[in-house]
Amino acid sequence: MSDVARNVAEQIDLYGEPLADLFARLTSELGLSQAGLARTVGMSPPMLSQLGSGHRIKIGNPSVLRRLEALLQLHDEVTAGRVATDDLETLLAQVRESTQPWTTTRHDLRPAADAPVMDDSDPDLAGAETVRSLLRAVASGSDLRDAAERLAPHHPALADLLRTYGLGSVEDSVEHLRNHRELF
User: pTM for the full model?
Assistant: First the structure.
């Protein structure tokens, strides 16, 4: 298997699909060029190209991920006919200017219709998201899964941490944090 094929497989593991497919869907449906997509999410066009071609695996900047998630939600609204074409440029500008912290609660970037709404001011949520973001910034989903499997026989609590915060849902992470509060 080539490096590019391995990288694309990692992207599928991380984001639910190859980034090339995700980028193509956004550019075609939202009327963006690749440079416009890069500008809107806050990355350089060469980085977007490297990600799309499979020469790079993951997006390391949490703010870029958050804006990409916002674009996907906007895409769904547009394709469902809930956003008028006349409003699209204003909404794209709002995404481009967004400085919200990363609050995605899923491994992939496809929006979930049934995703629970969580209170962003909850300190347990903030703590769980910090740990989740850190783990996901330094390792892919398959690397975290592999590390957890290797740790499990001798260090089951550490393996559980990697699985919960690195691979589990935000709800699982918050629950784990609350159940282990006495440790800190």
Answer: 0.55
